[in-house]
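Journal club prep — side note

Before the paper discussion, L.F. wants everyone to see what a predicted structure for a comparable chain looks like in token form. Sequence:
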Amino acid sequence: MQQIPTFLPVKSDTPSADQSSLESSSYGEIEPPKKSSLWRWLGTATLVSVIVIGAMVFGIKVIRKPTANKSNVPVQRADLEQFSQKAALINTDDANRVVINSILHATNGVVLTPSAEPTNAVAGQLYLNETSNILYYYNGLSYAALAIDSGDICRNANATCGFTNLNQVNQLIQNASIALQLPQNLLVTASPTFAALTLSNGQIALGTNTLKIATGSTALTFTLPPNLGTASQCLIGNGNGSLSFSSCAMGSGTAFIQGGNSLAATAVLGTNDNFGLSLEVNNVTVASFTNTGAALFKNVSNSTTAFQVQNVAGTSVFNVDSINSRVGIGTASPGQMLEVVTGNIYANGGDILVNQGAKISVDGAPNTYIRSPSANVLGFYTSNALQAQIASSGATLFKNSTNSTTALQVQNAAGSTTVFNVDTTNNRVGIGTASPLYNLQVTGSADDWIAKFTNTLGTATNVGRGLVVEAGDAAVATHRALEIRDKDGTAKLTVLSAGNVGIGTTAPTNELEIKDNDADSEAIISLRHTQAGTTDFNIRAGTNFVITDVTNGTNPFLIGSNAPSSSLVIEGTTGNVGIGTATTTAKLNVGGVTGSTVAVIINNGTSTGDILRLQDNGSSVFTVADGGGITATGSLTITGNILPASASTIDLGSSSAEFDELYIADDNGIRLGLDQDATLAYDELTDDRVELTGTGASLFIEDRLSLGVQTQTLTDDGTANDALTPTATYVRIDVDETANVGVPDLTISETGAKDGQLLAIVNNEQDGSNDTFTITNSAGVVHLPGGATLTLGPNDSVTLIYMSDRWVTLSSSNN
């Protein structure tokens, strides 16, 4: 900062001639050179001297700077009359300036001529504004006013020049950056003494223990106490200007005092208006609070303990190091920008954020850290190499800098058991083992399952799938896609890439092959059901193929070894069954029988039920009952003979189950007797009759012979026009008596008559009135005894037999 000359009166007990001459002479106004600021500097120096005294009285701190030894700085004095002769002591330069290299003393002050704002100003230059009469100085950037209130520091050239308040003095010193220097301390004991310092014009007077402040025509006098007060005392006035130290009043609203006080309420330090609050140390603001509550702490100089919070024992809880820009929690000497000692960092409901690219490292291992290698990705590094990363989607990547058989491991709490291991050297994963021998190896030692795959999804539209194994080449059938072994490594189940499944064999040649390697057992497939009322089955293959009903202990199905081809055939389209034959033209075909082998045997055992039953749409049509009885519904067609097992042992029909009709073909009959001595047959070829033939054969009717009945009605009209064609042996005649004109006549026809045929005619009329009829003898037709006409009345009858060409009377009755 540029040194500004200070003008002070120099006191001497014996003034020199030059000094006396100067002090007794009259001073006039010095006209400064054109465009020169010399006299403005002279006025400024005088004004600054007044400010120094005011600062001393009002308690303003004045920056003291050491002055040169006054023996080395000669005092230059000049009056107006001798100015031309003394001009040699004043230097001027080309810029119309007067440079004074020593102290300038103006007895009656310096008067500045009001002017417009100068151009080409230099730092520290003063001027009096011609419009507002306010004193300005140039601070190196712009002009700043030295007057704070609406009044001027010097209102006009002839008025009293002074300061209206303390702020004006403060601003003059601070804004002008003026360094004031005094030749000695302003102490009562100093030499020369300043015990009774009085400034002219009655502005400020300092006497013994008195302070006088004049404002215009009013003077205020304060009497100061003779001694300094003690701690917790305040300087209190008595209303008449007398000041003394006494105990401070306590209570709410009481001022704060040095050393502390008791306010009997919560102490409040702050402002009650719309302004902030600042705290100063050594005239420098070190803390400030805005009217919105924003707080700022700024040291005078940087420090490793610029801001601290300590506990009651004096241990640092929070420390701010402004030298190294570090914050410590639990330490007074943080080694990083943020260091937390003996404690945790806990974010309750918030986040701990790290800028992308920044690192979270381990102390002492700067190459081991966590950072974000790219947007929305968290990376874990060792030796400056990415080992693992997690993306925002949750995708996780583990990548060692070098391959290892233990690239990724999960162990139990004791570290003694490897639960999960990834071998990146051999591309293997182990569960329950740290040294997997396969791409995936699961090892367990507990008495439980070692693996389970569960898919909880499974609805009508979404299929919950289980496990998929893809391996091998389908073109190479021997590739093993899946294999299950026992603990000794013996394969128990093998699935080849072609799809063949082997149980007990590693080389199944078919889709499913089961092989039992134990000599004392059979290969068995068991079918079980847990519901009540169900049956369990085993399918066994050994010396025979057997389906066993395990529940009931039976073998319902058995195929012996070396069974011939087509032992049992079920045709796929119709479901026809072939036994011993592949030709299944019916629902059941039995074939392949040779020699004397029986084709079909049905053994009813001890059952009393039917041996065989054939049904048509649910209704039985043929039944072989227990004991061999056969029941057939409908016609029974036989191309061979029906023979009894032995002679005279089997009946055809029974006393309770008779045949309805027996149909025998023409010229065939029934042969009777063990030697077939008699034949009852129908002779259609020659006689058209049923004949009983055989040597000595005869027909014997023990009880009676019943003949067929034919009814004939005659018309009583007197005309022989009633003819009888016999169709039965017994003919019953009725007479229609409606006409009642005569006796009707009956003629007998030969049509259909056979030799030996008998005919019995009976008159059925019983009313006794016109109820007779006649039979007239007719050659070649009817032969009556004596050739006469035969009359038959009620209940009369005639018996005839046919002989070759006519009916011959055997007998007649006249009742």
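L.F.'s comment for the group: The first helix runs from residue 17 to 24. Keep this in mind when we get to the figures.
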